[in-house]
Please model this.
Amino acid sequence: MEPSRDNPLIRFSAFWWGISVISLFGVLVLILWLRSGGNSGIEPLEQAAAIKRYEVRASIDAAQKASLDSWKVVEEGSTVQVPPTAAFEMVGAQLIASKPSKIEDPAQVIPNTPTAEKLAGGPSADYAAVDALTPAEGTAPDAALLAKGEQGYLLCAACHGPDGKGVQAGDITVGPPLAGSEWVTGPVSNLIRIQMRGLTGPITVAGKVYNPAAPMTAMGAASSDEDVAAVLTYVRNSFGNSAPPVLPEQVKALRSEIGKPALTEADLIPVK
Ligand code: HEC
Model:
């Protein structure tokens, strides 16, 4: 063995160099751990905000679940219990499956994006002409259309409640009431445009101002003219409401609204 390799001094210093490097690393990890809050009970700001979000989310989930638990839907003539989460799972799966792609179809435009703003500058449909097509007061809705609308309402019920009385999570509005809403029995063009573009910001329903936690999403693009007409006819003739049916051709005439920014109350034809 060469004497220089077996120098006890070199061994001694190598040992302490090793120990120092390892402890330095340990101190670094300790500093990082303390900076991230340690276990002192003090949450970094970001985490504290997330906790609040999770609390709000949990209260909304609980309110929706409670409101949907008793929900039944008519299917092929018989009434069957539908799991309350089924509708959300379906929508969730569709959202996850969607990929960003070049926008060619207005139905794919997301409200409030630059593309939507550009589209908003386009010509708007003749709302008065659409409202003029509404059947006369007292026209009874078709029974088959109503039954179809009742099924379609399952999705609306998540936010507006099976009884149309709205869903509240404490003082947070998930969805305002449709029962007794002057918007529901008012001009049909308002209702169709809400389906095509969504609705955001405060809204007054039956004399009460609602400030929803999240806007109503545009849902009409994914449904046929018939399905939209059916669900709107259903809400106009349920929960104590009564108004003439909505026609598929009225829905068709307002498809050009798809892709435009979400509506606010000021964009609607005033009611009462
Ligand atoms: C994700 C929750 C959600 C779903 C699902 C939903 N809405 Fe809404 N809806 C809202 C919210 C929130 C508002 C109020 C939006 C605002 O003003 O900010 C609203 C407003 C409305 C309004 C106008 C205000 C009123 O209370 O009269 C109508 C009409 C309406 N929705 C109909 C429907 C119909 C019909 C469906 C089913 C096809 C539906 N909504 C599904 C959340 C929802």
Summary: The chain has a mean pLDDT of 84. Residues 155-156, 158-160, 175-178, 181, 183-184, 191, 194, 199-201, 203, 205, 212, 215-217, 219, 231-232, 235 surround heme C (CB under 6 Å). Residues 48-95+110-267 form a domain with the Cytochrome Bc1 Complex; Chain D, domain 2 fold (CATH 1.10.760.10). Strands lie at 72-75, 78-81, 167-169, 172-175, 203-205, 208-210.
